[in-house]
Design brief:
The protein contains 4 helices and 5 strands; from the N terminus they run βαβαβαββα. It has 127 residues and is of the alpha/beta class. The chain has a single domain, classed as Response regulator (Rossmann fold, 3-Layer(aba) Sandwich). α3 links the parallel β3 and β4. The two termini are 27 Å apart. Residues 4-115 form the Response regulatory domain.
Length: 127
């Protein structure tokens, strides 16, 4: 089963482009803003969230804070994908962050890395 990624971006074309690039490796869901992303994550928890930072209303940083505040979503990996450099003055500045434009292979590799490292290791059954 493919990992579920929630793509959050206020640009329709960016959402569609990311879905096109990620669909071979991920089951993609789309949200156009932070509010709809949070609602979607609550009802269909993703394995990872990829979010733009600059969005009207709830920006990516606020979305991340709200996701982290909810126990069922707290451990979902978060990757910021933005056209702007990260702001070092935010608590989220230590989270994974890629600046657009990003090479598709780099983005896909980073997402796989984040999903793999966030999943609990299955218990070994011995014989």
């Amino acid at each position: 089963m493919k990992p579920r990624v929630l793509i959050v971006d206020d640009s329709w074309s960016m959402r569609q482009t990311l879905r096109f690039l990620l669909a071979p490796d991920f089951d993609c869901a789309l949200a156009e803003d932070g509010v709809s992303a949070l609602e979607h994550a609550r009802t269909h928890p993703p394995d990872i969230i990829v979010s733009d930072v600059s969005m009207e209303g709830m920006d990516g940083y606020e979305l991340c804070r709200r996701v982290r505040a909810e126990a069922p979503l707290r451990e979902v990996p978060f990757l910021f994908l933005s056209g702007h450099e990260p702001r070092p003055d935010t608590p989220e500045s230590d989270l994974p962050y890629l600046v657009k434009p990003v090479e598709p292979s780099r983005l896909i590799a980073r997402l796989h890395e984040l999903v793999t490292t966030s999943r609990p290791v299955p218990a070994q059954t011995g014989s």
